[in-house]
Amino acid sequence: MHRSQGPALLAAVAEATAEALSEAEIRLPEDVEKAIRAAYGREHNPVARGELGNILANIALAGEGRTLLCQDTGIPVIYLTLPPGLPYTKDLEEAVARGVRMATEKVPLRPNAVDPCTRENTGDNTGPGIPAIHVKPGETFAVTVLPKGAGSENVSRLGMLLPTRRADVERFIVETVALAGGRPCPPVILGVGIGSTFDGVAALAKEALLLPVDDMDPFERQLCDAVNALGIGPMGLGGDTTALAVKVKKAACHTASLPVAVNVQCWACRRATRVVEGWR
Amino acid sequence: MTGVTELRTPLGEEVLTLRAGDRVTLSGTVYTARDEAHLRMQREGIPFDPRGAVVYHCGPVVAGDRIVAAGPTTSARMDALTGFLLDAGVRGIIGKGGMGKGVVELLRGRAVYLAFTGGCAALAASRMRLVGVYFPDLGMAEAVWAIELDQLPLVVGMDAHGNDLFGRVWEEAKAQCRARFHNSPGSTP
């Protein structure tokens, strides 16, 4: 049984995408703001407290004034959950892109999408392969957006480690943050993928950034503590708060492989979800 | 470090008393400049009085006569384009992430680097009023905007005495990482 993908449903998809993207750019998710507030309470370094205070003031001002949290409004990454019976089609893909273009014009967002070689800007945050769309089966029809800034994306790393050296997983993660220093606008959130394949592990790392940051298991907590021991602090000016959270997603992998990916996210971990109206 | 020092442009000898890690606020006119503006100023001259001036590494979002978003951009891109500004009398640079070792030496005895919190575009805009523009043909992000600041909160990242807070913190972090994993191979420099 295929549900109909008429113009009304496609318009609703575009609308949901535009709404989710607009909301993500203006209001930080509650769990992320809570984590920043908690870090501010714990921080001992006065410079770091000042930086975290500025970030909290910025979040409040953006929310009140309905303005952008950050001028790097990111590259759009989209996660679609499709309910049973609803196929993923070219029309659906185009409807999501239309939603990105609508938000780019309306908010407005900075046009960041360019040709990788000529660097020519497409002007509307879409282009071949962008928005990046990931599809998962689900119970409802929903659009989740994760606009990703470049400063943190650029210091992300992927490694194919030796399966006999599992302790190197922690090293690789901590080292990624040490090599990045202040460049990704810390405090960061680390999305970590372990396992899968060369391409799959990067997707896992990015998906980990969708998980709530106010809940870490003992392994994630251990990684987060190890990163914070580096003392890089907010913006690389030193302090107790280098990472707000580390979130890990695992998948099975080849017995001869140990893929690890670290997707670094700045403090502005922008994400929002909208259910597509009228899909039932 | 105690309290917050209030600074106002044009800056003078008072910048020599600042130390890396000091918290300050800055008021008065500053000038935005990114990559293209630096190249243009180098070629055609600085369009504002550079004596005691402050340059802000920023590509703002401007709507009419209003600044909508104006967070700092990564300063290190301007490392090789900074000497002529300091030689002309610029006393302060605002940006994020700090600058290279060469700039530490260029600042010595004359100017400071002031760090503004990355990503805080709304906070920055709330402390700003647009007063003018030079090189508008460079486009919104790259033009030189004259902006009146009202107590923008900043941290002295690099002082006029060779101290570089970013550099010190980063070196310590890398050393800490090497020490923690000293018996396993890796790529920490």
Which pair of chains forms the biggest interface, and how many residues does each contribute?
Answer: A-B, 49 and 44 residues
Strand count of chain A:
8
Task: Going across the biggest sheet of chain A, name each strand in turn.
Answer: 2-1-3-8
Please list the strands of the largest sheet of chain B in the order they lie side by side.
2-3-6-7-9
Mean pLDDT of chain A: 95
Uncertain residue segments of chain A: none
What composes the largest sheet of chain A? 4 strands, mixed
Discrete helix count of chain B:
5
What is the second-level CATH architecture of chain B? Answer: Alpha-Beta Barrel
Overall pLDDT score of chain B: 94
Backbone CA Rg of chain B: 17 Å
Distance between the termini of chain B: 31 Å
Structural domains of chain B: how many: 1
Kindly estimate the percentage of residues of chain A that lie in beta strands according to DSSP: 15-25%
Number of helices of chain A: 8
Sketch the major β-sheet of chain B. Answer: 5 strands, mixed, barrel
The CATH topology annotation of chain B reads as fumarase
**Strand element count of chain B:** 9
Q: Identify low-pLDDT runs of chain B.
A: none
**Rounded radius of gyration of chain A (Å):** 19 Å
CATH top level of chain B is Alpha Beta
Set out the fold topology:
The complex is a heterodimer of chains A (280) and B (189).
Chain A: H1 7-26, H2 30-42, H3 46-65, E1 77-82, H4 90-106, E2 132-137, E3 142-145, H5 150-153, E4 157-161, H6 168-180, E5 188-196, H7 198-208, H8 218-228, E6 243-253, E7 258-265, E8 272-275
Parallel strand pairs in A: 1-2, 5-6
Antiparallel strand pairs in A: 1-3, 3-8, 4-7, 5-7
Chain B: E1 4-8, E2 23-32, H1 35-44, E3 54-56, E4 61-63, E5 66-69, H2 83-87, E6 92-95, H3 101-107, E7 112-115, H4 121-126, E8 128-134, E9 144-158, H5 165-180
Parallel strand pairs in B: 1-2, 2-3, 3-6, 6-7
Antiparallel strand pairs in B: 2-9, 4-5, 7-9, 8-9
